[in-house]
Amino acid sequence: MAELVEAAGVGAGPGTDKNIQQPLTLVMPVAYERLDDLKATLKNDRIAAFSRAALERVGTVHSTRFVILEDAERRWAKLLVIAIFDGDVDDYIAAFARELNRVFNPLLQFVEETEDKPPLPVEDNVEAFTRYVKNRNVPPASNRTFSAYPDLTALDIYEATRPRNDGAPSPQQ
Amino acid sequence: MTDLDLDDIQGLILRGYRKDVACHLVLQIEEPGRFKALLGDLVEEDAESGPFITVATDWRKKPAVWRYRADPADSGERATHCINIGFTFDGLKKLGLEHASLESFPAAFREGAAQRAHKISETGPSAAEHWVPSLGSGNADVIVSLYADSTEERAEVTDEMLARAGDAVTKIDQFDAQRLNGTDREHFGYVDGLSQPTIEGAPMAGIKDPFPPVPAGEFVLGQPTQRKLPWHPVPVPDSLGRNGSFAAFRMMAQDVKAFEEFITTEAQRAGIDRELLAAKLCGRWRNGEPLVMRPSSPPPGAIPIPRENLNAFDYEATREFPWGDQEGLVCPRGSHIRRTFPRSQRVIDDFTGLRRRIVRRGMPYGPPYDPSHPTDDERGIVGMFICASLEHQFEYMMRQWINDGLFTGGCLGRSKDPMTGANDPADSRFVAPGTPRVDTRGFPRFVTTRGCAYLFLPSMTALQHIAALA
To answer: At a CB cut-off of 8 Å and minimum separation 6, what does A36 contact?
Structure first.
């Protein structure tokens, strides 16, 4: 990787540029009586395919996953969205609202009706959605986070690892 | 193919006039009733009563006298001057638009350029509090832009316009602009205005690029766009919003002395030709030839690339351009033109840089820079950045592409456009990979914003609508 990075033009090592990669740990309270519907929706292949296509279009996400924390005895559950993304949080959440609306609109149906919950659809209520996500984004417990490549964006890695152009059109063209 | 009503759309949205001089009158509305009457006159098709708003119709296909004064030296087919008009949100409020109509305009336009300057890195010397008072104060209601073939014509039309307006308005500022020694170059010495979108359904203007024509809705409200839905609903009523557009009117000072000194110093330090460094910073040689097409300085006697071919390139390898420049070894990914129009290069949010286009209409102001007698006179570019969404096109380009580096691959970090970005010597950096490799840091900003206004450019129908408001 270091050689590829050097070839792409970065001379200095990690740590020269700050605030590139950001963590998101969004914790949303689930309407417990809808938990099974939520689980089924998360396994829906069409939503998964749409999510993948949208995230590829956004281009700033290194990784993301949904996690459900559940306590059947006390009858509560939380839906977590865990991600590492590039850039500013407002831009990232706005991209979520704009590009991932077909993921978040169905999922938010199963989230508790709290005062801060944004109206749906999220794409028409970007500011309220942004406030909600920022309010419910749980920061890391310490700033001692680790990334194997803290100065690289998702697109830096994409560019550094895709086939080099050797002067001939690619087979797809 | 879009069927555009070219008679309804202001000309500068869809076409460059290629005039020699321009001026922009910044007006404050004093008597809305009288001003609305003047607006009514400005859209009337009466060639005898004075200046008229220039529309996008290709005048070469029109009779000699049609909305314009005929130019006897040009077979009467070409207007000797062109006029366009834009309104700030405050201006529209003064003209008595209904509340629902005002509220239907996008938030960026309603808030205005000064309020949102910090969002696009207009900080430090470019911050709104340092702008020229007419644009920083919020007093500007209307900007009338005049384009003419001569300074005499410009003065004549300006005087005529202001005389007709009378006490309806107060002129609070005037920005004059002119081609530098009759050329297409801006003050840094580069040929400017080469890269403009080809707009579907519009008269061909400028040099064609190798990409599909851009749907007109990217620049004209109410027309088909590149997306399933436009960025914003068209302002209501339809007679007001449709066929209008938005523009960021900008005045940007260029520090030519600092730019030239930087090139000289850095070229010596890096051991490369200073004109090659100048080309690496821009992505084009100063004569307009793109680095991708002319990777090294042309030998004496080399045949210049024809002007009509100066946009015929891409950075990605395609069937038409099998070599491309994927890694930025020839044209650095951080260079000016590769940021302001990344072409089919992979970018965030849209896959390619073809999805957020902007029409640029600018002209230099201030005296030409003479390196043998450098002066501190202010000089720069003044003009319009035209788009359907100030937030998602103009501001996005300023924020993500010019003043940040995370929008594309290539390890740009949080670097900015080396020529027009809000660079700070504390963290500025420009890397040109390839041979010779350039890695320069600690340079200042070379362009400072002197003022900006967000304008609505109404259609002819909309101007009539406004003129008829009670």
So the answer is: none
Mind telling me how many Å the CA of A137 is from chain B's nearest CA? 22
Q: How confident is the model at residue A98 (pLDDT cuts 50, 70, 90)?
A: confident
What pLDDT shows up at residue B126? 97
Q: How confident is the model at residue B324 (pLDDT cuts 50, 70, 90)?
A: confident
Contact A9 B348 (CB under 8 A): no
Put simply, the answer to whether A9 touches B431 (Cβ < 8 Å) is yes
* pLDDT tens profile B267-292: 999 999 999 999 999 999 999 999 99
Residue A106 in contact with partner chain B when CB distance is under 8 A: no
Whole-number Å distance between alpha carbons of B2 and B223: 8
pLDDT score at A168 = 43
- The SS3 of residue A65 is strand
Chain A: residue whose CA lies nearest to B408: A155
For chain A positions 136-165, those within 8 Å of chain B (CB to CB) are: 151-153, 155-160, 164-165
Q: Which amino acid is at A115?
A: E
Say whether A152 and B318 touch across the interface (CB within 8 A).
no
ipTM associated with this complex: 0.89
Closest CA to B347 of A32, A156, A24, A173: A156
Burial of residue A139 (CB within 10 Å: 0-12, 13-18, 19+) is: exposed
- pTM equals 0.92
Which of A73, A38, A159 has its CA nearest to residue B411? A159
Inter-chain contact A169–B411, Cβ cutoff 8 Å?
no
pLDDT attached to residue B69: 41
- DSSP track, B338-393: HHH--TTSEETTTEETTSS--EEEEEEESPPP-TTS------EEEEEEEES-IIII
Residues 6+ apart with CB under 8 A from B395: B108, B116, B119, B120
Helix-, strand-, coil-residue percentages of chain B, each rounded to 5: 30, 20, 50
Nearest C-alpha neighbor of B169 from the set B134, B205, B195: B134
Q: Which tops the pLDDT comparison, A15 or B297?
A: B297
What gap in Å lies between CA B185 and CA B124, rounded to an integer?
28
**CB-CB: which of A9, A20, A168 is closest to B406?**
A20
- pLDDT tens string B346-389: 999 989 999 999 999 999 999 999 999 988 899 999 999 999 99
Q: Give the mean pLDDT of chain B.
A: 91
Instruction: Give ∠ CA B190-B342-B429 in degrees, rounded to 5.
Output: 70
Residues of A in contact with B413 (CB under 8 A): 10, 16-17, 20, 151
Q: Which two tokens stand for residue B325?
A: 């420049």
